[in-house]
Amino acid sequence: MATTAPTSATRTLISPVRLTQPRGRRVYWIVLTLVLLVTTVVFIGPLYWMATGGFKSSQELVSTQPTLFPSHPSTHAFSEAWSRLGMAQLLLNTVIYAGGALLFQLVFDVAAAYSLSKLRPVLGNVILGMMLASMMIPAAALVIPQYLTVLDLPLIHVNLQDTPWVIWLPTVANAFNVFLLKRFFDSIPNELLDAAAIDGAGPLRVLWSVVLPLSRPILGVVSIFGLVAVWKDFLWPLITVPSHETLNVGVNTAATSMPENSLIAGLFLASIPAIALFLIFQRNIMAGLTAGGLKG
């Protein structure tokens, strides 16, 4: 009786024959469990330490024998951090900066991706290549040129420092978001756009009525990336908006004047919105990143 040679699609790190044996199954599950436990501890450990640190006293927090659980849990550090740091105002500032940055990113990045994907401009591939090449430049190397630019905006010669525009404008041209959006737009059948054009819809009408409704998954991903990027930024708001601090700037600049447990509590409060946003929309993030990867 002829046997069928295994194909590349059935090849795995552990052969199916080994997995059918009791010893092979035991080894497989032991290794898998250990890898998952180590990975979970590495990623969740710092978050757990930050979350429980606010419930500990300063002495317990800096003790040479760290405790896994607070011996005498207290929420005093959280209330102190909220009042001393003025976190309500910091939260409002951050929401304004993140919301405006998200709005401008969606408008300009969607327009750029739609143009490169469906309108096919002259030298479109060259423009896309230059956008992607800009991702190889370290962010720290762009701080000084961006700062000098916002101090004296070319052509109109306006100083944007200490205004929301100094946060909003540099976030508009996001090469990674443009690439994600273009890849998704490429997967939308051109027949749908041609049918809309036959009905008399122009390019903007096609974008609004056909492309955007089909692109909700990737728009969700881009929105989350845009919000988190502004939310977690520290260096740029520190040097450009000194009188309107964000959460990260306000909490970190108070590191030398607050007890350790209150500082940890403030850091945890500042992290809650970003963590909650990811936990709520994690399925949408994965769906948006994988959508458009397959055609057919």
Structural write-up:
- The protein is mainly α and 296 residues long.
- It has helices at residues 16-19, 22-53, 58-61, 76-85, 87-119, 124-134, 143-151, 165-168, 175-186, 190-198, 203-214, 216-232, 235-240, 247-253, 260-290.
- Helix 14 packs antiparallel against helix 15.
- It is flat and about 70 Å long.
- The model is unreliable at 1-6 (pLDDT under 50).
What attributes does this structure have?
disordered N terminus, mainly alpha, about 300 residues, flat
Distance between the termini: 37 Å
In helices, the fraction of residues equals 55-70%
Number of helices: 15
Mean pLDDT, rounded to whole units? 82
Strand content: under 5%
Q: Let me know the largest β-sheet.
A: none
Shape: flat
The ordered H/E elements are HHHHHHHHHHHHHHH
Give a count of the beta strands, DSSP E runs of length 2 or more.
0
Radius of gyration: 25 Å
Kindly name the structural category: mainly alpha
Uncertain residue segments:
1-6
